[in-house]
Design brief:
Layout (H helix, E strand, L loop, with lengths): L1 H32 L25 E3 L3 H4 L4 H17 L3 E5 L3 H5 L2 H6 L1 H4 L3 E3 L6 E5 L12 H4 L4 E5 L13 H7 L4 H9 L9 E7 L15 H14 L2 E7 L2 H7 L10 E4 L7 H10 L2 E4 L5 H8 L7 E4 L14 H4 L5 E5 L5 E3 L1
Parallel strand pairs: 1-2, 1-5, 2-3, 4-5, 6-7, 6-9, 7-8, 9-10, 10-11
Antiparallel strand pairs: 11-12
Helix pairs in contact: 3-13, 9-12
Amino acid sequence: MRYVRGVFNYRKNHKILFIVILVILLISIVNWMVPRYYDYRQIPTKVYCDKNEIDKQKYLLFPMTAIVFDGGLGNQLFEVFSLLGLAMKLNRTAIFNSDDWILHSKLDLLQEQVPQVAARIISIPIEIAESTRFLYSPACCHYQFASLLSCEQNRFLIIDGQYFQSFKYFSTIESSIRKWLKPPQDEEMFLKKMIRRKDELRYKHCVHIRRGDFTTDSQHAGTDAVFTIRAIDYLYSLHPGLIYLFSNDPEWVRKRIAEQLDYHGDVKIMETPKDAAIKDLYFSQVHCDSVLITAPSSTFGWWIGYMSKNQSNVYYRDIQETEDMVKYQMLEEDFFPRTWKKLGMSRNGLIITK
């Protein structure tokens, strides 16, 4: 019996050991599969100015929240160009953190849509001992620039914030942005062929309409049909011409907007696939004489306006007239360029310039 009991105990212990190893293995697999976001909190912050300038190459980086959390092209362009603009202002080199593997696993959209922009940012590992972190407000649409940034001497400067949705971050590189986003020659030729010869000289209004998740996320306000129809009528009365409707919900646009306009023959719905969104920005540069942004917190609508031919003919809806929660985070003078025109709608339905 002693021998049999020993065999039994051996088998029991072996089984327990097998279960323990299996549990450890499963935990390891789960930890490997669950994304591990880079923890920038491990990098110290400063509240004083260091005047002992060092003679080294210095770098600037953001956590790149818009990319890491799968933001759309509009959000990613704001973040990348703000990084490049601030880097120039601070005489630093813009970089991606090569130790942030989640960031690098999600660069496909940027690399495929705007490869010439993505290529301008190198990836190198950061050294925590030579890094300083500055905390930025979580508000989306404020321009912030602390004087401490200019005198920070550590090699790696991390601005720990998100969104960076203000044109003021990249105002010094505006001409470069327009060059980087310029359509390739073959794309420009294709865009010009989209317009019939008899329509080449006609005025072209581009209207951005945002629906989709904006109508359900309780944060943004999607495009309102009544305002949009009356705003299009208003712009059409100023310059009769062609109307191009850009939207992520073409069926809604067809029924609620296009079919309600009196000049059907002048209206075209642009159904651009999400994975080719850059083509809308190309179209704006080549053809849009005016742009109407009907969902004022849409960053992609903003970029259609920013890339259009005439910055004095960009119109956007007054966000204060909407239920868009972003208005509580937005400083309008930081988000909308001064040359753009704000439109409102009076109680009797008239479109007014504010």
